[in-house]
Amino acid sequence: MELWYTEEHTPAVRFSIKVREQLLCKKSPFQQIDIFDSAEFGKFLTLDGLMMVTEYDEFIYHDMIVHVPMATNPSIKRVLVIGGGDGGTVRELTRYDGIERIDMVDIDEMVVDACREHMQITSCKLGDKRVNLYFEDGLKFVRRYESAYDLIIVDSTDPFGPGEGLFTREFYGNCFNALSPDGILVNQHENPYYESYSTAMKRAHRRIRELFPVCRVYQAHIPTYPSGHWLFGFASKKHDPIRDLDAPAWNGLGIETRYYNTDLHVGAFMLPNYVKKALERDD
Ligand code: SAM
Predict the structure, then answer these.
(1) Are residues 41 and 77 in the same domain?
(2) What is the pTM of this model?
(3) Which CATH number does the domain housing residue 262 bear?
């Protein structure tokens, strides 16, 4: 018998991966957690039936969510990751010797436990001595801090279920307050193609733009995410991701990456016209 994982990208579009076996099926107080093994993408984690991370293409997402802000301001020392329970974002951050403290706050400890057991490719650096793990709602966590972080990375689920609060005005305002005067906020920004995702993308962009003087969007190609085209938000109190990129300095760090490079860093901000228009429109 063949086993397939199928995800509904829209009511009329489905995406399927042939599965070798299901490794985990658990319900936490927050969400349904499943881990599968497959020939094409290796092991993969889904939450509430939505793809979070696969062994074989995770490098694209984690390179882009971490190295773009780090190459813009290599002096970043204190980082907060909101969500990110698979550990991939933390893994990339630990490659920077200059980072002194990485706080990760995920609402669901069971996701972290599941990834520690089955997804070592992403969870392998959660035990780094600079990493502090907190299990609570990121929306509440960030309220407590002022000027405490140089970089906040929102590596969350989509804006429904437990991740909903991480796309609100209140949350972005609290992130602004929690950031240092030259702080950077990067968030996963949904896909621009399918309407339900692109509505969320426009709303998030509008809310962030109201707060941060620098507000840009960049893109990557991620095969297992809806439409394969994914966006990230870059907002900052001071640093511009293109003007302030010091390519020789980042290349001098000798960090080997499979997706990110400093040419692509600039190119990723060059958006297709339909995406630019959608972001400019105020509907
Ligand atoms: N790369 C992924 C994506 O965009 O599909 C995100 C991966 S990561 C597994 C998402 C994490 O966000 C999950 O572990 C989930 O528990 C966490 N999360 C969802 N809502 C949250 C909240 N309000 N506060 C903190 N973490 C949250």
Answers:
(1) no
(2) 0.97
(3) 3.40.50.150
